[in-house]
Amino acid sequence: MRNAVAIAGVAASGAPAWAQTAEATSMKIGTPGQQGNAGVYYAQDMGYFKRVGLDAVITTLSKGSGAAVVAAVSGGTLDCGEADLVSIAAAREHGIKISLLAPSAYWIDSQPTQGIIVAKTSPVQAARDFNGKTIGVPSLEGISRISTNAWLEQNGGDLGSVKFVEMPSASAPLAVARGTIDAYVLTEPTLSGSLTDCRIVAAPLDIVGRAYVETAWFGSDDWIAKNPQLAVKFALAMRDAQRWANANPALAAGIFEKYSGVTADALKNTVHTRYGDVLDPVHVQPVLDMAYKYHAIPQPLAAKDLISPAVTALPR
């Protein structure tokens, strides 16, 4: 009830009175550091964290998959982090008590930011051509693997004959071009940068739906219970920062370049990620349904049960 009352008092600026504090509270935040989870960089650089009274200490886990971020959050190394919904749901269903605080990357089929790449000289053209091949993914348990499973199965591929290997995305284009692996499920900005030597066969995330939350920010239930106002402050800052990024993609790209080290030249042809603003169960559910269908989670999971009650009353 305390959270609902506080959130209801949102001022015209978008931050409730209790969030507009002179003294900032430290918050440890982890991000994999890709364009799809760059919302914290925008919130930091544009002052959205400062506005709600947060002193954000951002750690970039460039070599970590969603499972690595989940481990850091559940272990208390981080207060919150970002991962794909499949990794978060799988952890939750295996007894790790974490909940969603804010959306991150938002998939829109008209602006695809993920694709299966193969070498330009590869004979692969369709799902059935992957039979007996090796496909690299950022995580064997994440959304890239699950969506590719679905795409292969629904388009005539023999899923049982395909081998998946986990590999960092930064080294994937060269591995594909050299033939070390046959394909890789890649996201922006590395995706666009790979197209000199590689080509895109399909965007498997289209199988999940036309528009939905792909990745999200989350915290441990224990931390949220002890810090409910910090959780709401974080959600407010992410809402406003990601709205700003959607409206100002060129400026957002400049901030991403600053924090990530990805050059402006590498970003110039990139399809910019769209970001969510407020968690809506309708837009979270498609990934959870796909995760259950392809055995990433042992039983159906309702999106409303994955979203923290601390942020369910957050205004749009």
Strand order of the largest sheet: 2-1-3-12-4
- Rounded to an integer in angstroms, the radius of gyration calculated over CA atoms is 19 Å
User: End-to-end span in angstroms?
Assistant: 19 Å
Order of helices and strands: HEHHEHEHEEEEHEHEHEEEHHHHHH
Q: Quick one: how many beta strands?
A: 12
Tell me what the CATH architecture of the largest domain is.
3-Layer(aba) Sandwich
CATH class of the largest domain: Alpha Beta
Report strand %.
15-25%
**Rounded average pLDDT:** 91
The CATH homologous superfamily of the largest domain: Periplasmic binding protein-like II
Structural class: alpha/beta
Q: What is the molecular shape?
A: globular
Compute the number of structural domains: 2
The major β-sheet equals: 5 strands, mixed
What is the overall number of helices? 14
Low-confidence stretches: 1-13
CATH topology-level name of the largest domain: D-Maltodextrin-Binding Protein, domain 2
Describe this structure in words.
This protein has 316 residues and is of the alpha/beta class. The chain has 14 helices and twelve strands. The strands form three sheets. Strands 2-1-3-12-4 form a five-stranded mixed beta sheet, sandwiched between helices. The protein has a five-stranded mixed beta sheet with strand order 8-7-9-6-10. It has a two-stranded antiparallel sheet with strand order 5-11. It has helices spanning 2-8, 39-45, 48-51, 66-74, 85-93, 143-154, 172-178, 190-193, 221-226, 228-247, 249-260, 264-267, 281-293, 303-306; strands spanning 25-31, 54-60, 80-84, 98-103, 106-108, 114-119, 134-137, 163-166, 183-187, 198-202, 211-213, 215-220.
